[in-house]
Every structure is written in structure tokens, then in C-alpha cells.
Fold this protein.
Amino acid sequence: MPENTESYAFRPWVRRAGASIVLVAAAVTASIVIALIANPNARYGWIGERAVWAYIATLWLGGLKVWLGTRRAVAEVGEETLGLRPLHQFRTRTLRWNEIRGTEQMIGGDRMIVYYDTPRGMRFVALNLNLIKGRRTFLATIDTRLRSMGFVEKTVDRSRYLSRPQ
């Protein structure tokens, strides 16, 4: 991304939540290993169930994804592009400003959806605003940038839309 990029990090509690999930997974794994060392016949009980191991694997994978995923910024606003890294996705969505069709946000809500064009048609990316450190500044920056591009605001029920004029 260009040098003039504003980065918005994840809030600190998000990283701590991921770390705590990893610690729980480590504690459960260690407990099972100790139980197996102390009593090898324990493998025939609930410890040997596939569901237990699937659950532990899910804890490890989910916790590591959150913990390691928060090392990079959740959003990067640049001169030419907008980079979004929702926690539930594995890769950054880098959007050119001219590809953006609009945004949707519930009034007082905690989610923003950005609609954008691709060669295969319109797509969207959803962003949980509660996870962004500097949420108000981020929203003001996006709002200012889109309005400067001619986007107009429309309110329908409890949803606020910024879109290109029809």
C-alpha cells in the first residue's frame, strides 16, 4: 500500500481473547496428555472420542487464527485503496476506491458492509466495527472519502446507506 496509509488496529481485547482461547486449548491438551501418561487405559474412555479431539482442534485453530490474525491492522485506508481484513476471513480484501459501489450500516449498529465491483459481478465484505480501535475515526474517514467521490446518503428504516447517485 502507498505511504499515505491510515491503519486501524484491532482493539486489544480481541487479541487477548484469542490468546485466552489458545491457553484453554493448551491446558485441555496438557490435561489429556497427563491423564494418558498416568493411566494409559484412559484412551478407551471419553478421551478417545473423536468429538473431543475435534473440539480441541477447533479451539487450537480458532484461537490461533484470532490471536495471530490481530497482529495486522483490521483496516488500511490509502490514497488509492481501502484494505479490509475481517477477522472471519483469511485474506485482506484490497479495494480500489473506484470499485466501491456503496456501504450499508445499521444506525447505532456494529456492522458495516462494503459493496464493490469485481469482474464476476458485485461482491461485499462485512466488517465488525466493535473490533476496530478508533472506530469513530475510521467511519469518519470512510464517510469523508466516499462523500468527496459524490456518494450520497440514504436512510431506509434503521439502515444508513452511502451509495453512488442513480
